[in-house]
Amino acid sequence: MKIAYILFDGITWLDLIGLYDPISRLKSHNYRPDLTWDFCAISPSAKDNFGLEVKATCHRPSLAAYDALIIPGGHGTRQLKEDKIFIDWIKSAAPSKYKISVCTGSLILGAAGFLAGKIATTNFREYESLKPYCRQVSTDRIVEDNDTITAAAVTSSIDLGLYLCRKWAGRDAEREIRMLIDYHG
């Protein structure tokens, strides 16, 4: 399984790291030895609103070859949902089995057309912004609708990471990883 983590300026790093940590443990604890990932961006690096910069491992690759697309949230999503070049790049993930978001990353999935006719969630402050992109906005912490999985605000990223551990490797993997990260949520 190959994952594309999407990076962009204005990202909320906890949205990414909260799920990256449990998912990466699927590989390090041999639950999914086939698991690989790239940190993909349109530019060579991405910064949050406070200046923390992370280098991308892939610059604007086609996202069609990935099994899962994961888009974190952050203030940058508000502008990016209107950025045709960025959204066209995200649309290249259409063949991907999973389109996944945390927080306002769902606005990007919506702008790319991946939430049309579906139920989705986002940060509680952005429910109205999500409405035009989906059939129904849910207040649930994690929503799975066919090939899309959306999670609510920032701390839901840990819940989503564990949810994906269970989905991709089973309950035993999720339980062990939950214990390893000492998460009681």
Describe the structure.
It is a single chain. With 185 residues, the protein is an alpha/beta fold. The chain has one domain: Class I glutamine amidotransferase (GATase) domain (Rossmann fold, 3-Layer(aba) Sandwich). Helices cover 34% and strands 22% of the residues. The protein has seven helices and eleven strands. It has helices at residues 13-28, 77-80, 84-91, 105-111, 127-130, 156-169, 171-180, and strands at residues 2-6, 36-41, 45-47, 53-55, 58-59, 68-71, 98-102, 119-120, 136-137, 142-145, 148-151. It has a seven-stranded mixed sheet with strand order 5-2-1-6-7-11-10, sandwiched between helices. Strands 3-4 form a two-stranded antiparallel sheet. A two-stranded parallel sheet has the order 8-9. Helix 1 (13-28) runs parallel beside helix 6 (156-169) and helix 6 (156-169) packs antiparallel against helix 7 (171-180). The longest helix is centred in the N-terminal third of the chain and has 16 residues, at 13-28. It is globular.
